[in-house]
Amino acid sequence: GENVEQHPSTLSVQEGDSAVIKCTYSDSASNYFPWYKQELGKGPQLIIDIRSNVGEKKDQRIAVTLNKTAKHFSLHITETQPEDSAVYFCAASMDNNNDMRFGAGTRLTVKP
Amino acid sequence: IAGITQAPTSQILAAGRRMTLRCTQDMRHNAMYWYRQDLGLGLRLIHYSNTAGTTGKGEVPDGYSVSRANTDDFPLTLASAVPSQTSVYFCASSETGYGYTFGSGTRLTVV
To answer: Backbone phi, then psi, for A83, in 5-degree steps?
Structure first.
């Protein structure tokens, strides 16, 4: 089955700096790559996703890039704010979503 | 507010006891999922259901069962709880091919 690895496990940045989280996946058949943000005591929340027919997608301060050849994708957060502090999860799956596999998570801390 | 409701929020359970975690969605999503979240292991799929009346096994199904009698409800049952089932359990739903909507979780401690 699919295996998703996520790095780094923890990331600390100064407010206003950029943050980058990277994930790799093993199954070349995967074609859907969502990112989730989990705040303390809450469930994960979808923040952005990308499908294999595009290489980059942006939504305000967040962007995701996908390299299908290398089987890796990344989350980029610009102009970080303290409220961006959370645990971020990447995931990968095929269209049927039955076996979406998650990375182990990255704890992002944005210092004011 | 549309979304997923999980109950209970937390529970301490004696080993060997039976427990059902409840999950209800009001978005009419066809697919529903149960995940467990453990420190350092991320989210692991326990069981899923593509549509009412069907269920399937995920990555870690042993010791758990589910049912999907209708679109909205997807309960998870631990027949005889063991300490290794101590975890935070998340229910989620989606339309096929789209991202998940997660509930707020149930924190279960088996002692």
So the answer is: -70, -5
Inter-residue contact B42 to A105 (CB < 8 Å): yes
- Going residue by residue through chain A, which has 112 residues, state the pLDDT in tens, using 9 for 90 and above: 789 999 999 999 999 999 999 999 999 999 999 999 999 989 999 999 999 888 899 999 999 999 999 999 999 999 999 999 999 999 999 876 677 899 999 999 999 9
Q: B residues 18-37 near A, CB within 8 Å?
A: 31, 33, 35
Both structure tokens of A111: 């210092």
β strands within chain A, DSSP E: 4-7, 10-14, 19-25, 32-38, 45-51, 56-59, 62-67, 72-77, 86-92, 101-102, 106-111
B28: nearest Cα among B54, B57, B4: B4
Contacts of B58 in chain A (CB under 8 A): 99
Quick: pLDDT tens for B52-84.
999 999 999 999 999 999 999 999 999 999 999
Of B41, B99, B105, the CB nearest to A104: B41
Q: CB-based contacts of A81: which residues, under 8 Å, 6+ apart?
A: A15, A110
Q: Which residues contact B43 (CB under 8 A, 6 or more apart)?
A: A44, A89, A102, B35, B36, B37, B90
- How far is Cα A91 from Cα B107, in angstroms, rounded to an integer? 22
